[in-house]
From TrEMBL:
Organism, as annotated: Silvania confinis
UniProt-listed Pfam families: HHH_3
Protein keywords: Repeat, Signal
Keyword Signal in record: yes
Gene Ontology CC entries for this record: type II protein secretion system complex
Organism placement in taxonomy: Bacteria, Pseudomonadati, Pseudomonadota, Gammaproteobacteria, Enterobacterales
Domain of life, per lineage: Bacteria
Name the record gives this protein: Uncharacterized protein YbaV
Helix-hairpin-helix DNA-binding motif class domain boundaries: 74-93, 104-123
Length: 126
């Protein structure tokens, strides 16, 4: 009986070692392919040569828009965390209820919270 248990444990140890070895070999092969891909990849352009990726980049950093006059596209471009759908909601609310009296009135628009308004105070004006 003891001899059978020893053989079973040894067989289990060999299987575990085999699985560990194959997993390690697969991981090393994946790393080798990744590092080879990095070697083949072209080097990125210097930071000053890169074009802005999105419309909400450096050009929108200092730009301010009027929440009472801007189009939905302008609002979506300038406001951080506001896409076209929320910007359209702002314009629709403005058209239905009239111009905003304060910037905090934006919180009355469904989907626009106080933290979103605070985050965008530097980009908005009346």
């Amino acid at each position: 009986m003891k001899h059978g248990i020893k053989i079973l444990l040894m067989a289990l140890a060999f299987v575990t070692i085999g699985i560990s070895h194959s997993t390690l070999a697969a991981t090393q092969a994946g790393k080798a392919q990744t590092s080879q891909s990095k070697v083949d990849a072209p080097t990125p352009a210097p930071p000053e040569a890169k074009a802005p990726v999105s419309g909400k980049s450096a050009e929108a950093a200092g730009e301010r828009v009027s929440i009472n006059a801007a189009s939905a596209e302008d609002l979506a471009r300038v406001m951080n965390g506001v896409g076209l759908k929320k910007a359209q909601a702002i314009v629709s609310y403005r058209e239905e209820y009239g111009p905003f009296k304060t910037l905090d009135d934006l919180t009355q628009v469904p989907g626009i919270g106080g933290s979103l308004v605070e985050r965008n105070l530097a980009h908005l004006m009346l």
